[in-house]
Specification:
The protein is an all-alpha fold.
Amino acid sequence: MIKILSHWRRYSVPAISVLAVAGCAAAFAALGTQPDSVRKAARYVFMSICSTGSGDQAGFAAENDTAMNKMMTDMSVAPSGSVDRDFAAMMIPHHQGAIDMAQAMLRYGSNEQLRRIAQEIIVEQLQEIAAMRLALDEPLPPSAPAPTQTARN
């Protein structure tokens, strides 16, 4: 009986966690067909339900949701007539969204391998944003150190 309980504990908690995450993912996917106001309200409710746990998880979920919303809004551009400009106009906010999400990971995450990956994402995405701006003869923002360090470091 003890062996059965040991196996149950070992496999049931991860299985329940996977099902909860899958349920949250399915709920988010279903929002794609709803009007914007419904999506925003439902996303807030789902984030509250799906991000219960530590303060780090809730903080990360909130920052990540903000980054995703801003990225999706900023990627909605009217066609300019130039494929090059349209591509850059959509990809620059996409890359900035990746930077914002990586910064949230650095603020709240603890896995050192993932933190290094997040730092690399920030540096690489900043470089690609600069390259796209240069390709379009757009001005670059003022130079600043890459925001890969946080108060936790």
